[in-house]
Amino acid sequence: MAKAGATSQAQKSKAEADKKQVIARNKRATHEYFIDEKYEAGLVLSGTEVKSLRMGRASITEAWIEIDRRGEAWLQNATIPVYVAGTWTNHRPTQARKLLLHRDQIIRLTQKSREKGFTIVPLQLYFVGGRAKIEIALARGKQEWDKRETLRRKQDDREARRAMSDFRKGRAS
């Protein structure tokens, strides 16, 4: 009889498959914008796009989110390279891709993005449980001095951690 706390091999493999597998990150977004709210959206993809993503090839650094008049959210200018083993059914690398969001989320994003200084940016593209998802954020643009302040704060934190680490190492030996 198995223990109550023990996990089987099937449970372990399911947990492994359900883990978040990040494909692409937009590091520039956190440098260029203050992130206010985050949302997770599904993506409508063709077969060759999914296969290309599973190979780990995509770029969302130049991408943005657009909401059209019909109330549909679209990922614009994200690059998913063509699938090498694809045939005539291959996709265009930078085509617009529909995002799957709840109606109230789209309404909130539309209202906030119309305000001055707000935009919707993609943060990361990943697989969860075999489904392609994208994390998007409602963001406010940073001024040049905000960017310098953020870099200065990161550098100060890094130096403080390094000094504490050196102190601990000096103490231990």
Plain-language structure description:
The protein is of the alpha+beta class and 173 residues long. It has helices at residues 9-18, 27-32, 47-54, 103-114, 144-172; strands spanning 21-25, 33-43, 64-67, 73-76, 97-100, 118-128, 131-141. The protein has a 7-stranded antiparallel β-sheet. The longest helix is centred in the C-terminal third of the chain and has 29 residues, at 144-172. The model has no long low-confidence stretch (mean pLDDT 84).
Strand content: 25-35%
Radius of gyration, in angstroms, nearest whole number: 21 Å
Largest sheet: 7 strands, antiparallel
Largest beta sheet: strand ordering: 1-6-7-2-5-4-3
Task: Name the descriptors.
173 residues; alpha+beta; seven-stranded antiparallel β-sheet; 5 helices; globular
Can you lay out the helices and strands and say which pair or pack?
Elements: H1 9-18, E1 21-25, H2 27-32, E2 33-43, H3 47-54, E3 64-67, E4 73-76, E5 97-100, H4 103-114, E6 118-128, E7 131-141, H5 144-172
Antiparallel strand pairs: 1-6, 2-5, 2-7, 3-4, 4-5, 6-7
Task: Briefly characterize the structure.
The radius of gyration is 21 Å and the shape is globular. The chain has helices spanning 9-18, 27-32, 47-54, 103-114, 144-172; strands spanning 21-25, 33-43, 64-67, 73-76, 97-100, 118-128, 131-141. The model has no long low-confidence stretch (mean pLDDT 84).
